[in-house]
Specification:
- By secondary structure, this protein is an alpha+beta fold.
- The protein has a single domain (about 5-80), classed as Alpha-Beta Plaits (2-Layer Sandwich).
- About 20% of the residues lie in helices and about 35% in strands.
- The protein is built from two helices and six strands, in the order βαβαββββ.
- The termini are far apart.
């Protein structure tokens, strides 16, 4: 299964509250996402929210038509006092 972490300002802020954001393949359901996160990071998932993004076509700066693939985003909530080190900010 493909889990790609989304690291933005908003996702790092959510990570402090115990919510972690990943891009997953569009065909996966919440049960499969839960199993993958618990297996990879050895944590307990308490909730999952998913969002589907449609594919489509876009024109680039030359006017050529390019296709954009459909994607799915999952926000995973972990049990209290658990965290994923991948999303931790390094202190200066």
């Amino acid at each position: 299964m493909k889990l790609i972490p989304i690291v933005t300002e908003k996702s790092l802020k959510d990570a402090k509250a115990g919510r972690y954001t990943f891009t997953v393949l569009p065909g996966f359901n919440k049960a499969e996402i839960r199993k993958a996160v618990e297996g990879m990071f050895k944590v307990h998932v308490t909730g999952i929210a998913t969002m589907n993004y449609r594919g489509g076509t876009k024109r680039n700066f030359r006017g050529q038509i390019r296709s954009k693939a459909a994607s799915k985003k999952a926000i995973v909530t972990l049990a209290k006092d658990e965290k994923i080190d991948l999303f931790e900010e390094k202190k200066k």
